[in-house]
Amino acid sequence: MHLDEFSTLETKLSLVYSMDLTKSPKISSTFAQKTIVMTELTHRAGFVNIVGKPNVGKSTLMNVLVGERLSIISSKAQTTRHRIMGIMNDDNYQIVFSDTPGMLKPKYELHKNMMSFVNMSLEDADVILFVTDLFETDEEIEDVIEKINHSGVPVLLVINKIDLSKENQLEEVTAYWTQRIKAETVIPISATESFNTERILQEILDRIPVHPPFYDKDELTDKPERFFASEIVREKIFLNYKKEIPYSTEVAIEDFYEEDSIIRVRAVIYIERNSQKGIIIGEGGKALKKVGTQAREDMEKFFGKKIFLETFVKVAENWRKDKNKLRRFGYDQ
Ligand SMILES: Nc1nc2c(ncn2[C@@H]2O[C@H](COP(=O)(O)OP(=O)(O)OP(=O)(O)O)[C@@H](O)[C@H]2O)c(=O)[nH]1
Ligand SMILES: [Mg+2]
User: Fold this and answer.
1) Is 39 touching ligand 1 by the criterion CB < 6 Å?
2) Which tens digits make up the pLDDT trace of 202-239?
């Protein structure tokens, strides 16, 4: 560690501890000073990147670990399209989780961009959480697994959805994956039941370096408010429409205007073809109204404020295959 980093951190810690500790009549200032140095020598921080095939529960797990609904979740594969950071802060550590899109063989330009988020996250991790469930195989992702096995980064193999496990299934799945992934340990969990997720935390803390925090301790994510607003609308689209519609849709927030007692949000739902407009809007506008109401309710919970949400539908012809449009939607790397 650089000496100047040490002194900045020491100043910060001095401020914190002079408030907390020296106020207490039982704790002398010498003790407070010692605690500062101890914390400096023991504070851990690192990047923990969550990867795996689509639909195995990566986003559910990150939300559980961070304790906030940062990533959207759906029963359909390929819900997550970006790398989303979720920061877990404690006095003694800071873990910067990254949720990533499901690993797949790219079929169009959007997939390539999604996979570049995954590849990047393999490079800057202190620990990789490779998540699978009881049902997935390594089909289509053999090359990414190869990359993980040669990355030199410690891998924790997380087997999710064990609430659905039948006799011997967990043993069989564990045997299958331990032959493929070079993992330091295997952690069976149920993300939806928060079962055994504490063990993940312990295994991470054993592996991340002693380091000052990378971000302010009150920060929770790297993404702006508009991103979460658009993701909430997209989640409701994944929930309410079938087949190609969720995959053909992107959401852009054109206005996010915060007033004292309300946030005014203008969301544009982009589809690939004019013929999809009718499906999105639905008979008498019912389908779009439902999406709007559900999204508004979730935004009010997320932002803790009343929301006025307007939704519009526009066509962005074949946006999934168009590099310029993808860049406009924030997929540029
Ligand atoms: N039964 C059960 N279902 C789970 C568990 N964890 C997640 N799920 C469900 O699995 C589905 C996919 O969850 P996500 O968290 O969106 O999965 P993901 O890996 O982020 O998926 P992509 O973003 O598409 O890569 C959702 O319907 C979740 O409710 C679990 O522990 N048990
Ligand atoms: Mg996800």
Assistant:
1) no
2) 999 999 999 999 999 999 999 999 999 999 999 999 99
